Amino acid sequence: MKILVTGGAGYIGSHTCLALADMGFEPVTFDSLVTGHEWAVQWGPLEKGDVRDQDLVSAVLEKHRIEAVLHFAALSLVAQSVAEPLRYYDNNVAGTLSLLAAMKRSGVRKLVFSSTCAVYGVPPSLPIREDMPTAPINPYGRTKLAAENAIMDAAQAGQIDAVVLRYFNAAGADAALRIGEAHVHESHLIPLAVHAALLKSEPLRVFGTDYDTPDGTCLRDYIHVTDLAQAHVAALNFIMGHSRGHRFNLGTGKPASVRQVMKAVEAATGRPVPHSEAPRREGDPMSLYAAIDLAREKLGWEPQHLDIVDIVRSAVDWDAKYTADLAKTA
Ligand SMILES: NC(=O)c1ccc[n+]([C@@H]2O[C@H](COP(=O)([O-])OP(=O)(O)OC[C@H]3O[C@@H](n4cnc5c(N)ncnc54)[C@H](O)[C@@H]3O)[C@@H](O)[C@H]2O)c1
Ligand SMILES: O=c1ccn([C@@H]2O[C@H](COP(=O)(O)OP(=O)(O)O[C@H]3O[C@H](CO)[C@@H](O)[C@H](O)[C@H]3O)[C@@H](O)[C@H]2O)c(=O)[nH]1
């Protein structure tokens, strides 16, 4: 079965292509390479293009006789979305609407969408369940919620069948290190902390040390990218046998603070993480971690990587491999 993976040249999309191929699916990546990498597309063809190009998406759906779409393609950095909101609305909301129109034109009904825990904003209680109110506090989260709403309304109207996956913080890399996180403008905590420990970058800035959390820093739910990829395969199998719209959280359910992540990086690298304390970052909720009972029950999915040190170690191993590869090609 051929699956279109928009954003398949990106971090989570490429790991999902790997998981799809392992399970006998044929992933076809559709990606503009705005933040993705051609080298990450290893398990099927790459069709270069922008999801907002409706004619092209429709032609690709028909050329490959695609049966379902996994839609990862998006801009996804909170701080960048605060600075460039219209670029985010255009890419993430107009992009999703255009994709939905192309699917309708080409008769493809099944969709799995990458959403985010950022749609919850500041949750009323923890852990976060899917039926809690959505009230995103940054433009990125609002674009993802707008796209979700369009998808769920189309599903409610019987036009598509869709699974919306709200992931928490993706981290780590493929165990065989074939692919991993390689954002050109890196802003994520784990890779930045690893680079700081290895003295490849400036000291880490800890954004906010006065939150009402056990150690004053933000809590997040770091989920291994391979567990996320497996969840997409489970979601695809689920939606092939179900109709209408469904939403699931994907996390570990276990929170880690910024300081705990720094300790994990120290354990994984054997080096301290040089850092400074900085003001809170605009758009950051204090604590986000998931209730994952629904995904367990309906998708039959269970995260396998629960130890933050193991997750960080996987990121460290990938960083060493990627750095060595870059040095070879330099
Ligand atoms: N990384 C996380 O922790 C996280 C958490 C929650 C949700 N998400 C969501 O998961 C998805 C993937 O995130 P990621 O971390 O792999 O990001 P990424 O930047 O590595 O991957 C995104 C991919 O989409 C492509 N893309 C972007 N806009 C496009 C467009 N208009 N047309 C075609 N291709 C386009 C990029 O080139 C890139 O390959 C995103 O939708 C993001 O919002 C990520
Ligand atoms: O240099 C840094 C970078 C981050 N942080 C903190 O680390 C935590 C995690 O930040 P980051 O790794 O940037 O992830 P998030 O801002 O939580 O966003 C990620 O996780 C979201 C889900 O929570 C996704 O929707 C987004 O796409 C993805 O970028 C936050 O408390 C940040 O304030 C720092 O203290 N210093």
TrEMBL record:
Its EC number is 5.1.3.2
> How the protein assembles, per its UniProt entry?
Homodimer.
User: Which domain of life does this protein belong to?
Assistant: Bacteria
Please name the GO terms that the record assigns under molecular function: UDP-glucose 4-epimerase activity
Which organism does this record belong to? Dongia rigui
Q: Hey, which pathway is this one from?
A: Carbohydrate metabolism; galactose metabolism
* Keyword terms, alphabetized: Carbohydrate metabolism, Isomerase, NAD
One Pfam annotation reads: Epimerase
Q: What is this protein called?
A: UDP-glucose 4-epimerase
Hey, what's the signal peptide range on this chain?
none
The EC category is: isomerase
Q: Which NCBIfam families match?
A: galE
Q: Which gene encodes it?
A: galE
Q: Which residues form the NAD-dependent epimerase/dehydratase domain?
A: 3-251
> What's this protein's family per the entry?
Belongs to the NAD(P)-dependent epimerase/dehydratase family.
Cofactors: NAD(+)
Query: Which reactions are catalysed by this chain?
Result: UDP-alpha-D-glucose = UDP-alpha-D-galactose
